Amino acid sequence: MSEKLKKLAYNFLVLPVGNMLVLLQPEKARQLSENRITLVHKPKRDMSLSDRVMRSSLLHKLDKIQDYSAIAEQNRNFWVNSKATELFSDLEDTFKTDFIPHCTFIFDLLKKELSETSVEFNTLVEIGTGNGDVLNYLSAEFPNISRFVGIDLSPDQIELNKDRFSNNEKLEFVAADAFDWVKENGHGNTVFVTSRGVLEYFLQPRLQELFNMINGLGKTIFIAIEPNGADHDFDAHPETQLYGHEPSFSHNYPLLFKNAGFDIWHFSQKVWYKASDMQTFVGAKN
């Protein structure tokens, strides 16, 4: 079906039916829309057809938020509480369906980068480790790195990760704000990683400050796998833009890394789930 036909079907079939279901099932609508982030991200496989149609209607009606500070605070409040663990559990399959087939190529490129440097990188830090699957995978892919630290805002999720990966002695899981952790514990000879939606929750000034701080630690490499709006042209609009229904922030990652003094050794983008979303891959080093 062409994009034009899909849009017509959405406007003239899905939305009217969704609006009717919202009126007929107000309690179900309330449950679905209890939190913007879960409303946006809950996997379709966990929803009935009627729930999915209702969700389309609810997403269409979401109020626009323009206050960047309010957005950042709202998103942080979600990721720090117990609701985050439910979403991480819901998204567990995406490690196999998205990360493995679509994202691992950049770590093959990282292996090449590491093989061509005399610097011994002994630590890998994943900012926003979520359910720990990516960090566990990387610990097997990079046997010469001895320490793997997963940082996440959610104390509940960190405790679950400690339990789940207790047999992997290379892994450490820490409940902390990444900015504070790097300021207190960061050091050189470290690879930093984010995977599929972490830096998008940082306000631009704080993200720039984080990159500046990491550059000041000594020799570091940063792999950022982050979403961007497909309509965000970095050349025409270098500043951060709002992205998605949550909303979060579509940052110009290459520019922010360069501003902090990093060199970009890899940049690419892929369509992510739908035409309005891009997955951006950046490899930076100092």
From TrEMBL:
Single biological process term from Gene Ontology: methylation
Record-annotated Methyltransferase domain positions: 125-214
Q: Which UniProt keywords apply?
A: Methyltransferase, Transferase
What GO MF terms are annotated?
Answer: methyltransferase activity
Taxonomically, the superkingdom here is Bacteria
Q: What is this protein called?
A: Methyltransferase family protein
Native species of this protein? Answer: Winogradskyella epiphytica
